[in-house]
Amino acid sequence: MTTRERAYARASNQRAAQYTEMWIVGSPDDLAVMLQAASRTGRLVFVSAPHQMGPEDTRHRRYLRLRSS
Q: Is 19:69 a contact under the CB 8 Å cutoff?
């Protein structure tokens, strides 16, 4: 591996380590509280639209991307 390739790999790993990505599942009220907390701390980068878990399930799931530091 060349020096340039090592530097690029290191930079890519550092960028990837800056974020945490996760799916959260819960009632709409619970999700709203979680999103408010993440937003207030300044860690919330992206949140997807809510998706209902199933026809008889009242829970929703959302994808979050949070700043790690």
A: no
The pTM of this model reads 0.66
| H/E segment holding residue 55 | none
pLDDT digits (tens, 9 = 90+) for 13-64: 656 568 888 898 999 999 999 889 889 988 888 899 988 988 888 899 999 8
Largest CA distance in the chain: 56
- Write the CA distances from 17 to 31, 56, 66, 67, integer angstroms: 24, 37, 11, 9
Alpha-carbon 31 to chain mean position: 13
Residue ranges in the chain assigned as alpha helix (H): 3-16, 28-41
Q: Kind and range of the H or E element at 53? A: none
CA 34 – CA 64 distance, rounded (Å) = 10
